[in-house]
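ARCHIVE CARD
SHELF: 3
SLOT: left
DATA:
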Amino acid sequence: MLSRVAERIYWLARYLERIENTARLVSVYDNLLYDLPRGNSISWYNLIVINSGTEQFHERYKVKSERNVVKFLLADDDNYASLMSSIRMLRENVRTSRDVIPSETWELTNELYIYVRENISQGVNRSKRHEFLTHVIESCQMITGLLVGAMARDAGWNFMILGCNIERADMTTRMLDAGTFLAMEPFEESNVNLTQVIWSKVLRSQSAYLTYRRTVRRAIRASNVVNYLLNDEQFPRTFYYCVEQMDRAAKYLPRSASVRTVLKDIKSLKYVIESSQDLTDDFRSYLNELQIDLIKLNEVIVENWFAFKEEDAA
């Protein structure tokens, strides 16, 4: 497979996953608004910090309001990581990859693009945000389902697995960071178990609530949820599972030694939370280190396969 084709498929998968995960991340905070007791509030600006977008945000917005944060994450054309920007990039990568992916992918991607373009204001405004985000998530899942059900398990498929899972692993760390930050917030005393509410929302944002209950078989506690989303070997959105899937895909690709070495190093950083008392700034620093390692992994993937000159293959 030509490196330019492989690169388009890799980024197609990354943008598709990024769109869904951005919608999921905003949804966590949006859903919390309806469950927090009266008198408590949440800092929407933390979503900017979690997404490493503070510098870009401050260049265009003076107020750290809910509306400005959501607009930046969903609708801002100048934010390269916004949902709108990601959909444009997804559409372009699908358009230029139509000869190696199912033909229906182009139609479904266009439908999603048109829906978001025409309804993005619903995502910014609170009243219809849930409906908008749900539609985006379900549309991404339709496209993913098509690709899973109709792509040959060849080199293109393995590059898609790499792209999907590096993006998914990154967002899992950001979801955990969001949950940890919220759990550390000084909320007013209440009869409601706010920690349980927060971590239930994190699980639901990952579609992991029921599988967590079946697998862990314990009450929803911060330490249990964090360990599950980091280390479970069977659920497809846990960090460990994503890294394993990338390693498995890389194994079937040529010249994969350098990529698999980085993946091995990442797997060696396994972290186990003993209690909720361990969810401190040190744990958030650990999550940040994982994100840095994933950036390094992306750089190695690009250097190894996409910056590779075809004539050097001999």
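SLOT: right
DATA:
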Amino acid sequence: MLSQDELKERVVPLMKKQGALYAKKLNVLARKAIAGESIRTITDSGLETVNEAEEGDFIVTNKTSAGESYILKPDVFQEKYRLKRTGEGGMDEYEARGKAVALELTKKMLAQLGLPDHFYFEAPWKEPMKACAGDFLAAPPDFSEVYRIGRKEFFETYSKAE
């Protein structure tokens, strides 16, 4: 399994040269997390990763066909989302404002990176994350971390930034 630093060392130079800037186009549902709450992120291709919430974190649920949920730190959440509508049952709707630089993991790209068609790496929250040919690797514009977005979820969620 590649560490987050090893993955960034391999991927970020290629992201800077060949990646494209994307904007999140879908609103999300979100709520404050309960400290210690465990979230399993399940995409169309199966279990992506597991993460445990800390005090102040947010649970975010994408409005995709998989409805995958994940955890964000409060500062990241506030930067990437703006309240649109208060909801029922504790889930409010937020407008996405975040952008990401992304790179498709084609077979050619995987070969360039020296990676197999399926591989695991350490997610920014220190848990294993699986990536496969056809998925996307994404990073915030400052390239501070790299994470995986499943192919189907990527196209449901992002569009090229203008």
